[in-house]
Amino acid sequence: MKIKCIAGFAVITKDSNGSASLYKTAFGLPLEQQEDYLFMDRYPGANHFGVWPLKMVAETCFGSETWPDHIPAPTATIEFELSDADSVQAAVQEMKQGGQAFIHEARDEPWGQTVARFISPEGVLIGLSFAPWLHEEVPAK
C-alpha cells in the first residue's frame, strides 16, 4: 500500500456546541457547516479538519445514530489517502491478511469518497480513503 497523504483529521465529539465554541470561536478557524458537521478543506498544512458528532460517525459506520456498546467510542479519526478506489480495496485485503478487523470494508459514500474504516489500538477511527477531489489540480494563487 502506498499512502499519498493524510486525507483528513477530525475530532469526534459528544458536545457539538462545546467543540464549535473551541474551534470556531476560541481558535478562530474558518469552519464551514454541513448539518452538524464542521469542517475546513485545504487549510495550510492539512487537507481537511473536521468536528464530527459521534452520532454522525455511528450513522456513517453502522447506519444508526448509536455507537455500539461493544466497540469503544473513538475521539478522533484520521484518514490516509490512497491513489485510487482500487488501492483502497487492495489495502483492505492486505490488512485483513495481516489480521486487521474492519468496522466496514471499502465502500462508496454518498459524497463520492471510497473509504474503509477500522479502530486502531489507540482507539482512533482510521480510514483508508480515496477522495477524488484531493487528486484535482488546485490553481496557483
From TrEMBL:
Entry's Pfam families? Glyoxalase (PF00903)
Residues in VOC domain copies = 5-131
**Is the Oxidoreductase keyword given for this protein?**
yes
> In Gene Ontology terms, what is one molecular function of this protein?
lyase activity
Which SUPFAM superfamilies does this entry report, sorted A to Z? Glyoxalase/Bleomycin resistance protein/Dihydroxybiphenyl dioxygenase (SSF54593)
InterPro entries this protein is in?
Glyas_Bleomycin-R_OHBP_Dase, Glyas_Fos-R_dOase_dom, VOC_core
What UniProt keywords are attached to this protein's entry? Dioxygenase, Lyase, Oxidoreductase
What name appears for this protein in its UniProt entry? Catechol 2,3-dioxygenase-like lactoylglutathione lyase family enzyme
Q: Which species does the entry assign this protein to?
A: Roseospira visakhapatnamensis
